[in-house]
Amino acid sequence: MWTFILGVIALIVGYFTYGRYIEKNFEPNPERTTPAEVLQDGMDFVPMPRWKNGIIELLNIAGTGPIFGPIMGALYGPVAYLWIVFGCIFAGAVHDYMLGMVSLRNNGAQLPALAGKYINKGTMHVVNLFACLLLLLVGTVFVSSPAALIQSLLPGNVALIIIIIAIFIYYIISTVLPIDKAMGKVYPWFGAVLIISTVAIGLTLIFGDHSMVELSSATMANFHPKGLAIFPGIFFTISCGAMSGFHATQAPMVSRTMENEREGRFTFYGMMIAEGVIAMIWVAASLALFDGETLSGMIDAGTASAVVNAVSLELLGPVFGTLAIIGVIVLPLSSGLSAFRSLRIIIADYVHMKQDTLPKVMTITIPIYVISFFLTFVDFNILWRYFNWANQVTAVLALLVTTRYLFLKGRNYFVTLVPGVFMLYAVIVYLLSEPIGFNLGLSNLSYWGGAAITLILLAVYWIQGVKQKEALDPSSKLINDQLQIHQLYPELVEKNN
Q1: Of 24, 116, 89, 129, nearest to 404 (Cα)?
Q2: DSSP 113
Q3: Burial status of residue 436 (CB atoms within 10 A of its CB: 0-12, 13-18, 19 or more)
Q4: Is residue 397 one of the residues assigned to a domain?
Q5: How many angstroms separate the CA atoms of 202 and 32, rounded?
Q6: Residue 495 belongs to some domain of the structure
Q7: Residues 6+ apart with CB under 8 A from 84
Q8: How many angstroms separate the CA atoms of 458 and 464, rounded?
Q9: Where residue 82 sits, what CATH number does that domain have?
Q10: Do 78 and 212 contact (CB within 8 A), yes or no?
Q11: What is the pLDDT of residues 204-260, one digit of tens each?
Q12: What is the pLDDT of residues 349-370, one digit of tens each?
């Protein structure tokens, strides 16, 4: 129990200490006008209060990731706690804050546009590809996982395909609505259900008669029943809840609705800490209620949704347990919606198509949903593996973009460079060793080859950054945060000036 409690306390302390340092390092300016004020369009650029932005950010980034991932991460044993706590404080929350704030300084520009500005144009196209792939996989995963949970609550004769179609209809309607209507009105209610159900499970674990596995020298080992290695496995199994590239596609969307730069630490860093607390609760519940073989069997029999059902009903009983399952359902529904909405925005920005009329919105939206619908027929566990890798590659790209931003500004860039290099090495080893890549296994070739490739890529990145900084003059747009997205919205800029 004390490992769980101390871990949650550490996350909260991290928000008030390291989070404050990260904020100070960025130097937010409360006097700057924000994209929501400059580019109001009644669709994506809409001013909203801090509390509502925080709820939207939390529900956007959460999905089933901080629940399904930690459940599967619990197979490794109590060591999963360490990655959630340290990963969240020093990597994930930093990643979310920095990308969100750099986007805010660039009028809500998405990650591909930021990569094009701070690294180079070629990188923009690569990042755009990964971001689109990631969002398509996320949206599809967050259709399949809530559909399975909803089916478990309904009579047995309700076909899964009917639920999937109903979710897509909800997504299409919500995607074409203004953000303050699609998310601003509904998400506070979703957030209330999530918070109440999650807190209920956490308190039941603490005050109920449940034995939690503590982290100690004896348990600081790999307990995975299939013998899967902790590195790099756990860093891809638990992504949401520790560090997730998906968040780099969500923070820019919320940066378009913020009214003050001072909101950043609460909205971006703070909501990632909240997600870490959710992840801690589900790791603790999985370790308390199941042994490794049982947990593995439940996951292999379908998805982690079976574990969600069992945990919720056993800890809270049939009535409140069902409410907890509903609380879990709202997470992927909200994140799936935000994934498709972000995908629409990224594609629109990339092809320079303003989203100011319904036909333009539908031109991009409909093909996205058609592709995703057919992907729902692919095995969920296969989708999850590809999602995890694309997710962490996107996180690396976001950290390298924000590192370059801090480097050009003359700030402490190690806060993003260190986690970026670590995850770069992890994604390369994963690609070399796993069946989705070169399938070399976790051999010396994968580890040492991964290290060599990481050093080469890092050297190229560093040399380019030094040359870029040497070529800058004090009036440079890169230094002075000129708003690149003005190129996409010249009429709006003219109208608001």
Answers
A1: 116
A2: H
A3: middle
A4: no
A5: 40
A6: no
A7: 7, 70, 73, 238, 241, 242, 276, 279, 280, 283
A8: 10
A9: 1.20.1740.10
A10: no
A11: 998 888 887 888 888 888 889 888 899 999 998 898 889 998 899 889 999 999 999
A12: 888 888 778 888 889 988 998 9
Cβ-contact 174, 337 below 8 angstroms: yes
Degrees to nearest 5, angle at CA 405 with 404 and 406: 90
Element (DSSP H or E) covering residue 71: helix 65-73
Rounded distance, CA 339 to CA 114, Å? 18
Q: Which of 381, 239, 225 is nearest to 302 (CA)?
A: 381
Mean pLDDT for all residues in the chain? 87
Instruction: Tell me how far apart the terminal alpha carbons of the chain are, to the nearest angstrom.
Output: 57
- Are the C-beta atoms of residues 229 and 222 closer than 8 Å to each other? yes
When divided into structural domains, the chain yields a total of 1
Decide: 354 and 348 in contact? Cβ < 8 Å: yes
Is the separation of the CB atoms in 337 and 169 below 8 Å?
no
Q: What's phi and psi for 233, nearest 5 deg?
A: -55, -50
* Distance separating alpha carbons of residues 88 and 234, to the nearest angstrom: 14
- 485 in any annotated domain: no
Taking alpha carbons only, the member of 42, 68, 111 closest to residue 250 is 111
Per the listing, tokens 């076909």 go with 159
Residue 133 domain flag: yes
Query: Residue 336 in contact with residue 139, Cβ under 8 Å?
Result: yes
- Tokens for 493, please give them: 């800029």
Q: CA-CA distance, 243 to 77, in Å (whole number)?
A: 19
Residue bearing tokens 């950043």: 264
Higher pLDDT, 385 or 470: 470
* Residue 88 DSSP label: I
Distance of alpha carbon 271 from alpha carbon 140, whole angstroms: 23
Domain that holds residue 59: 2-385
